[in-house]
Amino acid sequence: MQNKKILLAVILVLLAAADVLVFMAMGAASPAPWLLLVGLLLVPLLLRSKATKCDSFLVWDEDLSVGIEAMDRDHKKLLNLINNLRAAVLCNTGEAFERRNLEDLVEYTKEHLQREEELLRQHEFPNYEGHKAQHDQMISYVNTYVRRYDEQGRKILPEVADYLTLWLTDHIKVTDKQYSAYLNERGVT
Ligand SMILES: [Fe+2]
Ligand SMILES: [Fe+2]
């Protein structure tokens, strides 16, 4: 990444130097140096917009691990499903693909939350009710989003993708991690 930045900086400096030379050789009345200057300004803008799009995708890292294989597997799949929805939003993939992605994500989110609650109940996790209350609130938001999607169409999808991205990463890092040590001590890994 660092090497790419250095290479880009070198290319930009060389282009800027070439532009100065073209200015000196052809004068400001010629369109050539101006065209070169516009190209020079567009390069970082184009690269920046590509980077911003890619930055919005979720990448799994060990910070998200709750130390329980089955739950990590579920969370990784949820991240993938959110990324699919993000891709559908960014790339205008059409109604059928968007709807399919949204439905898959909603369905799997509900399945995961139930699986997690079952695990916590089974091992009598002390804050089971508090944890479940957070899941219930999230499901209620998701149901509202699905209803709004039926009524308003794709314009609400970026909001859904942003909400689920934030909720999921925050919930895993803060709330889900609260059961890690408790379950690990009971042999769940
Ligand atoms: Fe949870
Ligand atoms: Fe979870």
UniProtKB/TrEMBL annotation:
The keyword Membrane is annotated on this UniProt entry: yes
Parts of the chain that traverse the membrane: 28-47
Molecular function via GO: metal ion binding
InterPro entries the UniProt entry points to: Hemerythrin (IPR050669), Hemerythrin-like (IPR012312), Hemerythrin-like_sf (IPR035938), Hemerythrin_metal-bd (IPR012827)
Keyword annotations from UniProtKB, A to Z: Iron, Membrane, Metal-binding, Transmembrane, Transmembrane helix
Residue intervals of the Hemerythrin-like domain: 67-180
Alphabetical list of Pfam families matching this protein: Hemerythrin
PANTHER family: BACTERIOHEMERYTHRIN (PTHR37164:SF1)
Family: Belongs to the hemerythrin family.
Name recorded for this polypeptide: Bacteriohemerythrin
